[in-house]
Design goal:
210 residues; six-stranded antiparallel beta sheet; 434 Repressor (Amino-terminal Domain); Jelly Rolls; 2 domains; alpha+beta; globular
């Protein structure tokens, strides 16, 4: 039997009141938005979530952008790969009615390490979930562009600030440009990008992804 998709639709309920009848709309469950919220809350890129869930990056992107409805098989992979349960996936995020007063302090050197072959990331503010921004500090180990098997790309926009050293900033549609301590860049993350250290010591950068 083929997998059956979850259909997300808006339902309207008629409520009878003493003054007459009024219509109340039940807000539809935005499953794609919920998947994206959970993924970003775990500081995962689409590529990392793809590896964890076994779903193609393009499939995850389409789910998050409400372009397709996930099959039961896809939902099972999401739940298992993201380490959540089904009720979490189908629960509407809480709506904020004002300032929530959230705060997260990361002491120097106490971020969550996340090493890769080319970067050594230190994830910041990891105690907060459902963040609108993902901040992290990175030491750039790569010394040549060919150390990257493919362009780095993911959803959102990104701000890059060079903390130490110098580096070549490669982007898919522009010539490489050298950046030095104090320089910054803001760019579309869907565009392929990569960093290569050019200073004697590996460059260090601060990234904020939205």
């Amino acid at each position: 039997m083929p997998d059956e998709p979850y259909f997300i639709r808006e339902e309207k309920l008629e409520v009878s009141r003493s003054q007459g009848n009024a219509e109340a709309a039940v807000e539809p469950l935005q499953l794609g938005k919920r998947v994206r919220e959970i993924r970003l809350g775990q500081n995962l890129t689409l590529e990392e979530a793809s590896k964890r869930t076994g779903l193609a990056r393009s499939t995850l992107s389409k789910i998050e952008n409400e372009q397709i409805s996930p099959t039961f098989s896809a939902v099972s992979k999401l739940v298992k790969g993201l380490g959540i349960d089904i009720p979490q996936l189908f629960t509407q995020p809480k709506q904020s009615n004002g300032a929530s007063g959230r705060r997260d302090i990361t002491r120097s050197g106490e971020g969550t390490p996340h090493p890769t072959p080319t970067y050594e990331h230190e994830l910041l503010a990891t105690q907060l979930t459902n963040k609108r921004m993902v901040p992290f500090k990175t030491v750039v180990h790569a010394r040549a562009f060919d150390e990257y098997p493919e362009w780095v790309r993911h959803d959102g926009e990104e701000f890059l600030y060079v903390l130490k050293g110098s580096l070549l900033f490669y982007t898919e549609f522009y010539e490489p440009i050298e950046l030095f301590a104090g320089d910054s860049a803001y760019y579309d993350c869907e565009m392929g990008h990569a960093l290569v250290s050019t200073s004697e010591e590996d460059a260090e950068v601060l990234w904020v992804t939205a």
